[in-house]
Design goal:
Layout (H helix, E strand, L loop, with lengths): L4 H11 L7 H9 L6 E3 L3 H4 L10 H16 L8 E6 L22 H17 L8 E6 L3 H8 L5 H9 L1 H13 L5 E6 L3 H4 L2 H16 L12 E4 L37 H14 L7 E5 L45 E2 L8 E5 L48 H9 L7
Parallel strand pairs: 1-2, 2-3, 3-4, 4-5, 5-6, 6-8
Antiparallel strand pairs: 7-8
């Protein structure tokens, strides 16, 4: 998997803040081996600003991936190398939140800009013959479509509006159509996480909604134009709750879980992808349907991690959040399983663990005065403040480097970093 030089530069910022030869310095050295996704979260990210000392653009990243591919291959045949791109610039993005609403508005020609200045350019670049030997993994539009599906009619006027105008449907279908014509691109649609769409009614909405969405992307109506779905993007839900089975009626019910799980029996991401695959296939999706899981921040190691089963679920769940919906710079979290392909022989539908959200990139600012969107459409969301009790203070805007969070994630990694 691709090692992002821009991410390595961020790690150097943190290395300058710790004592040489310390335990923290060793953790940062290990972090330099993390493959992470490249976020194309605005039109300007396609070109980047490398010439003036800024971030790399898409061509820069693909060229760097080719260099890495040749380096690992030596003089023999080129070995496979995957580079993950996050396609994330829908008009009216993230209709139920504020931390990263984005730069484009459907009321101000946003859909045309999204198609011609964003998606068309990405598709043209990744389709260049020079990059045909790379495996390009596209994680498409985190959060937005699940946001719309589950918040229409629930007091979120922005979600009602994008549903009525078909903004997300039109934008994502255009993306699927364009990228489906590029042979070396594997597309994964974002499918939120188990705490969100694990509920029976939400999951049913998602399966029906995604089926209609994908079928409408091409004239053929084929469902196999996507390789699968990406779960837990930029979230903290554990891969596995090791000390209990949520489908055991004697364990999970509203009385025993003090409302943490309530009536959602899908308590972790492995149960979630297993359940989703079964139900998507039953709905007509191909047997080849696969999943990737973001494990960048769901390890839940450290001193607060439970070590054995207990009488009460709250005393043995490793997810230590006050509420499963808390998503912003969560305290006491740690790096999870490191990125790798085919991580579970018992789950051939699980393609990989990946770091979609680069560890150390903030979820959103904790500055309550930042109520006006900045140039990237980012502003304060109350979930990043003191409302939840789970969010770290001192956080910068979404996507900016958050040293304190990064060090916490490294220290609390599970499995521990070596």
């Amino acid at each position: 998997m691709y090692l992002d030089p821009d991410y390595a530069a961020k790690i150097k910022v943190s290395q300058a803040r710790v004592t040489a030869g310390s335990t923290d310095a060793a953790l940062l050295q290990a972090a330099g081996k993390f493959p992470t996704a490249v976020w194309l979260d605005r039109i300007a990210a396609i070109d980047g600003a490398r010439a003036t000392g800024g971030a790399m653009g898409l061509v820069d990243h693909l060229d760097a991936a080719l260099v890495q591919q040749r380096a690992i291959s030596g003089t023999g045949a080129l070995k496979p190398l995957a580079i993950t791109l996050v396609v994330y610039d829908l008009p009216d993005r993230d209709c139920a939140a504020f931390a990263s609403n984005g730069e484009l508005s459907s009321a101000q020609n946003g859909m045309s800009l999204y198609k011609t200045q964003y998606i068309d350019r990405i598709a043209e670049i990744v389709a260049r013959p020079a990059y045909a030997g790379l495996r390009v993994v596209a994680v498409i539009e985190p959060d937005s479509y699940p946001n719309m599906l589950t918040n229409v009619g629930n007091g979120k006027p922005a979600c009602d509006a994008v549903d009525a105008k078909k903004v997300y449907v039109e934008g994502i279908q255009y993306t699927l159509n364009k990228l489906s014509g590029v042979k070396n691109v594997a597309m994964y649609l974002d499918i939120a996480h188990s705490g969100w769409l694990g509920w029976n009614d939400n999951r049913a909405k998602a399966i029906a909604g995604f089926k209609t969405l994908i079928q409408g992307a091409t004239t053929s109506g084929r469902l196999d134009i996507v390789r699968g779905f990406a779960s837990n993007t930029a979230n903290y839900t554990p891969l596995d709750e090791p000390f209990f089975n949520s489908f055991d009626d004697t364990i999970v019910d509203s009385g025993r879980t003090t409302q943490f799980y309530q009536w959602n029996r899908v308590v972790d991401e492995l149960s979630y992808v297993d359940t989703l695959r079964k139900e998507f296939v039953a709905a007509g999706f191909p047997q080849s349907l696969s999943f990737i899981v973001d494990t960048s921040r769901n390890g839940w190691g450290g001193a607060k991690r439970p070590t054995a089963a207990a009488a009460d679920v709250d005393d043995m769940r490793i997810d230590r959040r006050a509420h499963r919906g808390n998503w912003c710079n969560v305290k006491d979290t740690g790096i999870g399983e490191r990125p790798r392909a085919n991580p579970d022989n018992s789950r051939p539908h699980l393609d990989a663990f990946v770091f979609v959200k680069p560890p150390g990139d903030s979820d959103g600012t904790s500055d309550t005065s930042a109520n006006t969107p900045n140039a990237e459409g980012k502003r304060y969301d109350e979930m990043c403040g003191t409302k939840t009790g789970d969010a770290l203070t001192g956080a910068p805007h979404a996507g900016q480097w958050f040293h304190d969070q990064f060090m916490m994630l490294l220290r609390n990694a599970y499995p521990a970093l070596k």
